[in-house]
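Lecture 7, part B: from sequences to assemblies.

Below are the input chains for today's worked example.
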Amino acid sequence: MVSSALTIQDILPFRANNKKVDMDAFLPFIVLPFLLLIATISRTITIIIMVVIGMGVLYVYTRPRQKNRSPFFFSWTMSSAVTMFLVFEIIILGLLEVTQLENFIFLLLLACTCYFFYKMKAIADFELATGSSKGKEYSPVLTSDSYYCQVCQIEVNERFFHSIWWDCCVLRPNYVYFLAGQICAFATLLFGTNLGLTTVCQPFIFYGLILLPEDCNDAYYEFETPVEKTCERIKRVK
Amino acid sequence: MRCSYRKKIIYGVITILIFIIFSHPGLYGRSSYEFIEKHNILKYLHEEVNVNLTSNAFTNCDYHDIINDETTLSPNLIEGDLVEGHGIRDGGEYIPQDCRPKFSTAIIVPYRDRAEQLRGFLVYMHTFFRRQRIHYRIFIIEQVDSRPFNRAKLLNIGAAAAINAGFPCIVLHDVDLLPLRPSNLYACTKQPRHMSSSINKFRFVLPYLTLFGGVISIRTSQYKMVNGMSNEYFGWGAEDDDLYSRLRACNFKICRFGPEISQYHMFSHKLQRKGKLRSDLLSFARKRMAADGLSSLHYLEVATVLHPLFTHIMVDL
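Predicted structure of the full complex, as structure tokens:
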């Protein structure tokens, strides 16, 4: 399916055109942590914020297409990953309830995810740089497996689709890495959220094997910042 | 090409740095720690009963089958009722009738304002102790004033009451913790024992090795030697670490049982206000040991009532 990149201009028609690229790239790093911070106030607000973000994504997909490549969505992906990583490593680990082995497995899965998506982007950029139709808008002869990607403004062979969240085309050469990256990302997210939720909520042992979160009623009672708690615990260890 | 090679090296270095930074041991809880193996438990237990304990039984109680008991109790027992003919005397004291117990334990519970949790705690603990065949008595020390909750001073008051009643072993117990395994014998080991090392709220992981909060068992002689706990900790936090540093100052080591035996269920509750001066108090813990503790216990005893299931001591700190 063709899915083109949108710029912020499409969504907010009254913005100025100056500094378009800079703002698009940095906006998610400000907006996303801010939204998540608001979401910690209470359960109702968490649900509202998640619904708002979901609806925003749907809205993005239904807007009329433009041709320009925007770094906003790739930045959104990156800021999501960085925020989740920092929240996990600083706040969840700060509660001293995750073992070293569990964190090592998490970091390993995360490293695999990053590696696969990095390879996918590297191959896509390589194809763009060395493609036979670089710089031309149309090829005089269209074969059955050559497509014109409106977003990259280039013709690529064997294109499956263009992913706005990774800001690159997914082609036959890098499709394996795309799939592997998705599977690793799913595993990382599953494992990371299991560790996080069993830390914050009351867990129970499911059939004597794995911990699952059970009762999250007191997840919103925390007043003290986790950084303060971490410092205190490290002092106690000494 | 050189550019991408440099980028790869940078990414590789960042990845390795992240792995190194987040491998610091101080950042993790411990799922395994040094503990007394199951077959050694009976050797490490300290057998002593109250001096004035009288028992009409002919044989001593045998604890081998209790230690090797693999069952887990469900926290849903708190909603049930005690069995008929439970034989618990006024004041919450119980002596097993079918054999002579080898252990006498006073369970001391600091308490304020959690009546529903207390009811469930008492029903659960009396059901739990029936399987252990020990002589025990439950003391509930309630703080009736409105100052911040001073857990350590309440424990000191309870310990003083237990010493007066002649108990050689005390268990300092939080009201929101329930032991899940009957093999977790509520008796004293030769060294002070940290009993609650595997709590469900902490993912059954021990947050740090020197943790000494929740449920601990200590012989009354050892408790008197360290002059009990400090009376200065008003509000949540650090009074258990203070007790740990007192024990270390007197060269006591703490011990634990294995993670499967030491499983506890913690009830969720609203977070208490943190005590303001706790880090300052903790840094001078050893210096205050002699002057601050059991020897300097000043409080107003409002009432002592022998309820059917517990001894209720109400104090104004």
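Note for the exam: Chain B has a mean pLDDT of 89. Keep this in mind when comparing with the next example.
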